[in-house]
Specification:
Blueprint lengths: L1 H30 L10 H26 L10 H34 L15 H30 L7 E8 L2 E6 L33 E3 L2 E4 L4 E7 L4 E5 L4 E5 L5 E5 L5 H8 L6 E5 L11 E7 L1 H9 L4 H4 L9 H11 L7
The chain binds copper (II) ion.
């Protein structure tokens, strides 16, 4: 709402200022050429420029402070705090010169408006100035890029040993999620094994895959590193977990990954934002086709003990699709029955 108000307000103001300018200009034309030889609207333009400066600069900062609570929600991941800090540093680096330069530019346009008998000094070049305004921004941007590269290389580097590994598969138009079962190891996958049921291409010749399970929502443990291995089955999708400051494309044929550590459980975040119905979510942020809007998935951050409980309550993919038992090498069938819990009654 406030964004809409800001845009409407700015358009309205530009309209008013432009109308005033047009009216004054028409009046000048009607009056005919001035006797002094000075363009008659010269002073008007200079004053209008000053008014423009103060109205818009004031409007800008008013809008900035009013909208700033909506800029970024509290970061729900550890690295998110670093990226937020970078974001605010970049905003500062942009806004301080933005304000100073605008003050200077509009003041200069006003102060040095045309006056009879005043002549501009010819000042075409100054090496020292050129050096300053090339080197200083160069150093500032290099520092920003180095800080950003540092954060980026951390979150895309190898995750800690104890990280929870989760596979995410984007396809038109939903997400598939695969967790390791009780053994904590995700089984291998191979795209050549993908079929309408086996959407991940789970390789059942790998005993680690027997107890893997797929889920309709994502659960994450608080305070524990989580590695997302990201795949796509058809077109480019993009994993977007805004509260965790996580965005990584899901590219067909080119697995990507991202690791992060959730900081607040869903219950804690509900208290922080003061909304008992708050939920984390994962969205697709690549316009991937007609059903793109449907690629939303609920994300729940649990206390580690609750997370383990949730994992234990899930049913292995193999148990849900027992017809795949026949594809398992015979010497592994018995192990597959045990690990997937195929013979056990559902809980
Ligand atoms: Cu998508």
């Amino acid at each position: 709402m406030i964004i809409l108000m800001g845009i409407v307000g700015a358009v309205f103001l530009v309209g008013i200022l432009y109308s005033i300018f047009r009216v004054l200009r028409l009046l000048n034309i009607l009056k005919g050429p001035a006797k002094t030889g000075l363009p008659t609207d010269n002073n008007t333009s200079a004053w209008l420029l000053l008014i423009f400066l103060f109205v818009f600069l004031f409007g800008f900062w008013w809008y900035f402070f009013n909208a700033s609570p909506d800029l970024l929600p509290v970061s729900a991941s550890v690295h998110g705090e670093h990226t937020d800090r970078l974001f605010y540093i970049a905003i500062g680096v942009i806004l301080v010169p933005f304000t100073l330069l605008n003050l200077l530019l509009f003041y200069a346009a006003f102060r040095f408006r045309y006056k009879k008998g005043t002549f501009a000094r010819f000042y075409p070049h100054n090496n020292k100035l050129e050096m300053i305004w090339t080197i200083v921004p160069g150093l500032v941007f290099t520092a920003l890029i180095l800080m950003g590269t540092n954060v980026w290389s951390n979150i895309t580097a190898e995750p800690p040993e104890d990280a929870e590994v989760i596979n995410i598969m984007g396809y038109q138009f939903a997400w598939g999620v695969r967790y390791p079962g009780a053994d904590g190891q995700l089984g291998k996958r191979d795209y050549r094994l993908i079929d309408p049921t086996n959407e991940f291409g789970i390789d059942l010749s790998d005993p680690n895959s027997f107890d893997d399970f797929t889920a309709l929502e994502i659960h994450l443990p608080k305070g524990k590193p989580v590695l997302l291995n990201i795949f796509a089955k058809d077109v480019i999708h993009s994993v977007f977990l805004p509260h965790f400051r996580l965005k990584m494309d899901a590219v067909p044929g080119m697995p990507t990954h991202f690791w992060f550590t959730p900081k607040y459980t869903t219950a804690e975040m509900r208290e922080i934002v003061g909304d008992p119905s708050f939920n984390y979510e994962m969205a697709c942020t690549e316009i991937c086709g007609r059903g793109h809007f449907a690629m939303r998935m609920l994300v729940v951050v649990d206390e580690p003990a609750d997370y383990e409980k949730w994992k234990a309550s899930q049913t292995a993919w193999l148990k849900m699709n027992p017809e795949y038992l026949s594809k398992i090498p015979t010497d592994l069938t018995e192990l597959a029955r045990i690990k997937s819990g195929i013979d056990q009654q559902p809980l």
